[in-house]
Write a structure and sequence with these properties.
Length: 360
């Protein structure tokens, strides 16, 4: 039975990846999930799998080398899938040091622990071992409003503390590949959306606020463009890179769903009205009048767009979920899990929301 060590598996993308892997492989694999359970890590994301015999949760910080080495020594880890990261640009602007510690030092610790566990006396690595580092398109910087895409060969040009910390972690992985011939891949993905996404991010924030008649904050002119990837498609891409990706290669995973932020909000409002029952009182809250333009984010990149040509040509992956279908699936999930949303939007999140948006 192959053993996967998943870091950050209680977060949004990590938990969706774990669900995907158990749906696909059921009892053929074992997953050890390591998560520090910071504000965006939530074990409620994994209630459906927590009782499985082939699933283990370990609460630990990836910067704690002793804790990470203990996991490697007590388990024969075949694959590392490294999601764990601080990931919200706004938070990185307010508190960059946390991002540097988790994203850079944490990645270095994971690389060193895997290297020590997998390296043989002759400097080669045990067969079948692989480290997959999950990164972002934001390391490439910003594109013009129209034309051009990010490719694996695009020079890095990060503009925020978050993207700079992720670029640094990418370079660490690349260095281990080049220096030690370490068995790793890097994936750089576009903006994800779907179930279990913490509502500091645009799509769940807009869904939740619209259903409660709250303002819908939009940075600047609302015309910043992002490429949106349904999280299940991303999980499938990660698994396919693990299985078929050439050691040492980087693969961009994009959704072919470019949208302006203001378009996203309008589509969500239209879809909510389409999906809510006619007698649902929340319908009266949903209006474009809720859209509120706020002071733009510092260093706000104008456009991201990924070309997933390489992963399609080499591995056969391509996005399957068009945005309007994915947003319906996402809204349906939030309707069915309103208790989850209520739980994660209490306390610290509300304080953060007020600090970030109410006074702008």
């Amino acid at each position: 039975m192959r053993t996967y060590l998943v870091t950050g598996g209680a977060g949004f993308i990590g938990s969706n990846y774990i669900h995907y892997m158990f749906r696909k492989y059921e009892n053929e694999i074992r997953i050890i999930n390591v998560d520090a359970l910071t504000y965006a890590g939530n074990l409620e994301n994994l209630k459906e799998v927590e009782d499985r015999d082939n699933y283990t949760f370990v609460k630990a910080d990836i910067t704690d080398k002793d804790a990470m080495m203990k996991i490697f020594k007590e388990n024969d880890i075949d694959r590392v899938v490294h999601f764990a990261a601080e990931s919200h640009v706004d938070r990185s602007i307010v508190d960059p040091e946390v991002f540097i510690k988790t994203n850079v030092l944490g990645t270095a610790v994971m690389l060193n622990c895997a290297k020590e566990a997998w390296e043989k006396e002759d400097g080669t690595f045990a067969e079948g071992k692989k480290f997959l580092h999950v990164s972002t398109d934001e390391v490439y910087g910003s594109l013009d409003d129209e034309g051009g895409y990010f490719y694996e060969t695009t020079p890095y040009d990060p503009h925020s503390p978050y993207s700079a910390s992720k670029a640094s972690s990418d370079f660490l992985v690349k260095a281990y590949i080049d220096t030690y011939h370490f068995p790793a891949n890097i994936t750089n993905c576009s903006n994800n959306y779907g179930p279990y996404q913490f509502p500091e991010k645009l799509i769940p924030l807009i869904i939740n606020n619209a259903l409660h008649g709250r303002k819908l904050p939009v940075y600047g002119d609302g015309k910043n463009v992002r490429d949106w990837l349904y999280v299940d498609d991303h999980a499938k891409g990660i698994d396919m890179v693990q299985e078929k990706g050439r050691i040492g290669e980087t693969y961009n995973i994009g959704g072919h769903n470019e949208k302006q932020n203001i378009e996203i909000i309008e589509i969500i409002l239209e879809t909510l009205l389409e999906m809510l029952p006619k007698d649902d009182e929340r319908r009266k809250f949903i209006s474009k009048d809720l859209i509120t333009y706020v002071t733009d984010r510092k260093g706000h990149d104008r456009r991201y767009a990924i070309a997933p040509d390489k992963i399609k040509a080499e591995i056969g992956w391509e996005p399957e979920t068009m945005f309007k279908d994915g947003i319906k699936k996402t809204i349906a999930w939030f309707f069915e899990h309103e208790d989850w949303m209520e739980s994660v939007t209490s306390g610290d999140y509300q304080k953060y929301y007020d600090e970030m948006y109410q006074n702008r």
